[in-house]
What does this fold into?
Amino acid sequence: MSARKPHGQSYADVAAKPPPKSDSNVTPAVPSDVIFKLLAFTAAMVVGPIGMYFLTVNTIFGGNPTYAGIVAAVTANVVLFAYIYVAWKEDQGDREEASESNSKKAQ
Amino acid sequence: MADSEYAPKFAPFFSFAGIAAAMVFGSAGAAYGTAKSGIGISGVGTFRSDLIMKASIFIELIRSLIPVVMSGIIAVYGLVVAVLISQALSPSSNLSLYTSFMHLAAGLSVGLTGIAAGYTIGIVGDAGVRAYMQQSRVYVGMILILIFGEVLGLYGLIVGLILNSKS
It folds into this structure.
């Protein structure tokens, strides 16, 4: 199904020609470190707050659920700010790379 | 389990209504925030198709996912309050009407502030991500507005926790 038949050509013509070069890019998918980063934050967001709640409710706070709830909310915000920090650092590294490549181009 | 004027049979109904309100409204707000900011992120591909081949698009994508993470936190707030209320209930104990209305208030406060926060995050996230693709200096302002929007949900959680500790 890769080679469609244009008007005014026989199927033999179409089959003989190489398939038209597509400008859509499918080879470089998302880099694996980005995937792992996103997966780690997803896991932290899913497991972290509720896990901290059940971890601390009977061990540290002696069955007081209010403090354990506060710990769960704080954990969720810690994950959020860690994500913002990672996104921040990512950009700085990228800008340094970009400026390096720009200076190389200038030379 | 004796009935009384202060602890009638129907009292647990309001507690369970509080649990459902916390979870349902909080998730509704989170869903709106995720969907609306997701529309903005999806617009990146068509908006900056010159960038899509370069590696820097991933940095932009990681940054533009921040509204989605914040919407997830709104749902976590609802989840925390729902778990808190449900741990206070048991079929063998007598629940007073005061406690059950308090549970309803806690659930409604966290759920409806979750809707408010999710609505804010959705609209600001959509517009902010689109603006960030044009001008990356918008980033700090977008993060600040998003945090102020998310704090609305945090206020509801604080009130819910305080109400829950009064029983």
